[in-house]
């Protein structure tokens, strides 16, 4: 799969504004053990609109070209067309869940080394020959197939930095870690995004980290892990966090991407969306 | 070396600048008597000029509508004729021009529009962009490159996104190598000073320094402006001269040197995209019959300018030149270099040759 993608042309919407992701969650299903599994498909081109996370189409189709310079992953890492990401009620039977937190904790450089970078397809020799200011950047995270892109800055370097930070958000939203609800104790990064009204939050956690803080994604990932483990029930998750249901709802609604991810989960569980 | 650049912007930010012809001849350093002496003061990029002009919002809107129509009328004509920009790209540039030239704010409770150039000049600038195919970067006087905003003007090569990678290559090499990070570096043919400034920032405060050379006095003055804007006067030293000529005193002492020399074969110059071929300095593009004149010169000098363990990186025209250079350095400079590699740019084109002096 990786080999086939390298150097091939991709069509995608090219947006001048915030384009979040072209990853499709094509289905959220239940496994036999009762664990929810989100299935990501890295290459399906036309997802059902309701499932696409946040795609803005603003301008015409654009051709992309992937760089072939990322030989760092073993061949089999992306050999499946489908990538299963599971979260489990019972931490014991989960598979391949070690990655989620690991990816987020990677340095920019480590994360970048797991990515294939696409720039606008350039015909011709490039370099000194060319002056086109096509500085858009698109990153594909090979282990998960998650794609993030940025094109609003005038410098390719800056677009790469924005794409990388978006990739972190998307990983937090899409890659689930197993949670053991027996004796569950929220990790520090989750406590940090909770409001002070939380009864389990101690004073050494410091001020509440809001959605504009780059560290918010770490807490967001842990919160989604918990919400998946309780099948999308906000009231049940709230109990684990020492919060009222209303307070947790407000936290979820404070960030658009978090709200969308939670409502996507709730929709798959036939629950009403949070508003 | 400290550059004696005008310390205060205000001295060359006089409103009168706006009425002087935008394009100045900057290639000759010894003008004959009649024309006024050529100033080597760099032009101030649009975004650094004071917002001293005003306009009504309807006048500005009228200009924007006119500019959009002009950009849209291009369609894919330029793209088809010489692989130039299409309307979509030009419209994006128009937004950036507005970013740089227009300041909107509230004064005394009223919405006010302030411009960094007069409205008449905005008409002129956009006309130059479309009709003369003047590069957008020369229109606004700057280019966004890496995390930097660099001043550029005619007579100076506009730094390319591909070249951003050279700074990353140096960053990788100096990581954990104190000897290289604290050493003396050189950027030969620095142009706007882009690579030199990028490297200086990567070296950090460890005491590493960069010498940036260029043959062109315009380039030296523009690079000096950029170096000063980033407060790197004590780290980056500018020297005027051709390739190794101004580096006689540091022979065998460099921890590393990099260059993006002219590498386009002479035959290809006439077919270049108009923005490049008609407006950018030929001396920064034309690398001779096979584009290798300057690259070979740099390869020949590499062994004697670098200290043992020193690093070099050159940008090239592509795979053919890369292969040739690596073979050349393996065979001709037998035993002088190790770890020679060819590194692709983000489009997958084999763009850079790197290696170490043994």
What is the fold's blueprint, element by element?
The complex is a heterodimer of chains A (275) and B (358).
Chain A (H helix, E strand, L loop, with lengths): L1 H4 L3 E5 L10 E7 L5 E6 L19 E6 L15 E6 L11 H7 L2 H6 L1 E6 L16 E5 L4 E5 L5 H19 L13 H6 L22 H14 L4 H7 L4 H9 L2 H13 L7
Antiparallel strand pairs in A: 1-4, 2-3, 3-5, 4-6, 6-7, 7-8
Chain B lengths: L15 H4 L33 E2 L2 H18 L2 H6 L4 H15 E6 L2 E6 L3 H13 L4 H5 L1 E4 L2 E4 L12 H11 L3 H4 L2 E5 L5 H10 L5 E6 L2 H13 L6 E5 L13 E6 L14 H4 L15 H13 E10 L3 H13 L5 E8 L5 E8 L1
Parallel strand pairs in B: 6-7, 6-9, 7-8, 9-10
Antiparallel strand pairs in B: 1-3, 2-3, 4-5, 10-12, 11-12
Helix pairs in contact in B: 2-4, 2-5, 7-9
Q: How would you describe what is shown here?
A:
The complex is a heterodimer of chains A (about 280) and B (about 350). With about 280 residues, chain A is of the alpha+beta class. Among the domains of chain A are: about 100-175, Double Stranded RNA Binding Domain; about 190-270, no CATH class. Chain A has 9 helices and 8 strands. Chain A has helices at about 1-5, 100-105, 110-115, 155-175, 190-195, 215-230, 235-240, 245-255, 255-270; strands spanning about 10-15, 25-30, 35-40, 60-65, 80-85, 115-120, 135-140, 145-150. In chain A, the strands form 2 sheets. A 5-stranded antiparallel beta sheet of chain A has the order 1-4-6-7-8. In chain A, strand 7 and strand 8 (about 145-150) form a beta hairpin. In chain A, helix 4 (about 155-175) packs parallel to helix 6, helix 6 runs parallel beside helix 9 (about 255-270) and helix 7 (about 235-240) crosses helix 8. Chain A starts with a helix and ends in a 7-residue tail after the last helix. Mean pLDDT of chain A is about 70; it is low at about 1-65 and about 65-100. Chain B is of the alpha/beta class. Chain B has 2 domains: about 5-25 and about 40-145, no CATH class; about 155-355, Rossmann fold (3-Layer(aba) Sandwich), CATH 3.40.50.150. Chain B has 13 helices and 12 strands. Chain B has helices at about 15-20, 55-75, 75-80, 85-100, 120-130, 135-140, 165-175, 180, 195-205, 215-230, 275, 295-305, 320-330, and strands at about 55, 100-105, 110-115, 140-145, 150, 185-190, 210-215, 235-240, 255-260, 305-315, 335-345, 350-355. In chain B, strands 8-7-6-9-10-12-11 form a 7-stranded mixed beta sheet, sandwiched between helices. In chain B, helix 2 packs antiparallel against helix 4 (about 85-100), helix 2 (about 55-75) runs parallel beside helix 5 and helix 7 (about 165-175) packs parallel to helix 9. The model of chain B is unreliable at about 1-35 (pLDDT under 50). Chains A and B meet through helix 4 of A and helix 4 and strand 4 of B.
């Amino acid at each position: 799969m990786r080999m086939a993608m390298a150097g091939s042309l991709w069509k995608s919407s090219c947006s001048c504004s915030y384009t979040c992701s072209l990853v499709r969650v094509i289905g959220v299903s239940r496994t036999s053990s009762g664990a929810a599994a989100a299935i990501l498909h890295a290459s399906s081109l036309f997802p059902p609109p309701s499932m696409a996370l946040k795609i803005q189409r603003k301008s015409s189709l654009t051709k992309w070209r992937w760089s072939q310079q990322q030989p760092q992953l073993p061949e089999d890492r992306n050999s499946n067309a489908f990538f299963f990401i599971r979260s489990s009620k019972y931490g014991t039977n989960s598979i391949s869940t070690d990655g989620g937190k690991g990816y987020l904790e990677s340095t920019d450089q480590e994360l970048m080394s797991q990515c294939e970078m696409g720039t606008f397809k350039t015909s011709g020799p490039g370099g000194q020959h060319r002056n086109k200011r096509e500085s858009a950047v698109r990153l594909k995270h090979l282990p998960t197939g998650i794609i993030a892109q940025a094109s609003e800055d005038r410098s390719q370097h800056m677009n790469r930095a924005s794409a990388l930070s978006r990739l972190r958000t998307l990983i937090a939203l899409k890659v689930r870690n197993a949670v053991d609800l027996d004796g569950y104790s929220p990790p520090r990064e989750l406590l940090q995004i909770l409001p002070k009204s939380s009864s389990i939050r101690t004073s050494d956690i410091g001020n509440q980290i809001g959605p504009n803080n780059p560290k918010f994604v770490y807490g967001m990932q842990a919160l989604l892990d918990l919400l998946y483990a309780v099948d999308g029930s906000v009231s049940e998750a709230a109990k684990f966090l020492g919060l009222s249901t209303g307070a947790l709802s407000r936290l979820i609604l404070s960030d658009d991407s978090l709200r969308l991810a939670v409502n996507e989960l709730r929709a798959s569980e036939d629950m009403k969306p949070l508003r | 070396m400290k550059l004696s650049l005008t310390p205060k912007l205000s001295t060359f930010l006089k409103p009168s600048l706006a009425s002087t012809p935008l394009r100045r001849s900057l290639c000759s350093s010894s003008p004959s008597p009649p024309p006024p002496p050529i100033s080597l003061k760099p032009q101030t990029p649009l975004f650094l000029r004071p917002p001293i002009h005003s306009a009504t919002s309807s006048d500005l809107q009228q200009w924007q509508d006119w500019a959009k129509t002009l950009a849209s009328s291009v369609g894919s004509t330029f793209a088809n004729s010489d692989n130039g920009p299409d309307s979509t790209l030009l419209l994006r540039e128009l937004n950036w021009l507005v970013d740089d030239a227009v300041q909107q704010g509230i004064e005394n409770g009223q919405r006010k529009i302030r411009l960094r150039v007069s409205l008449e000049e905005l008409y002129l600038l956009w006309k130059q962009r479309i009709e003369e195919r003047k590069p957008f970067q020369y229109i606004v006087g700057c280019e966004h490159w890496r995390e930097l905003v660099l001043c550029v003007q005619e007579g100076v090569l506009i730094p390319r996104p591909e070249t951003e990678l050279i700074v990353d290559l140096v960053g990788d090499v100096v990581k954990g190598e104190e000897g290289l990070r604290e050493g003396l570096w050189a950027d030969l043919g620095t142009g706007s000073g882009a690579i030199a400034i990028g490297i200086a920032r990567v070296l950090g405060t460890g005491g590493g320094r960069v010498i940036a050379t260029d043959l062109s006095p315009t380039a030296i003055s523009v690079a000096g402006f950029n170096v000063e804007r980033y407060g790197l006067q004590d780290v980056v030293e500018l020297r005027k001269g051709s390739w190794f000529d101004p580096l006689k005193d540091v022979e065998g002492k460099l921890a590393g040197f990099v260059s993006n020399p002219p590498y386009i074969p002479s035959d290809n110059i006439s077919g270049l995209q108009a923005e490049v071929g008609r407006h950018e300095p030929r001396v920064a593009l034309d690398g001779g019959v096979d584009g290798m004149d300057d690259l070979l010169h740099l390869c020949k000098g590499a062994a004697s300018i670098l200290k043992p363990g020193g690093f070099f990186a050159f940008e090239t025209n592509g795979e053919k030149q890369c292969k040739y250079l690596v073979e050349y350095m393996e065979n001709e400079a037998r035993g002088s270099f190790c770890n020679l590699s060819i590194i692709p740019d983000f489009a997958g084109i084999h763009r850079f040759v790197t290696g170490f002096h043994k």
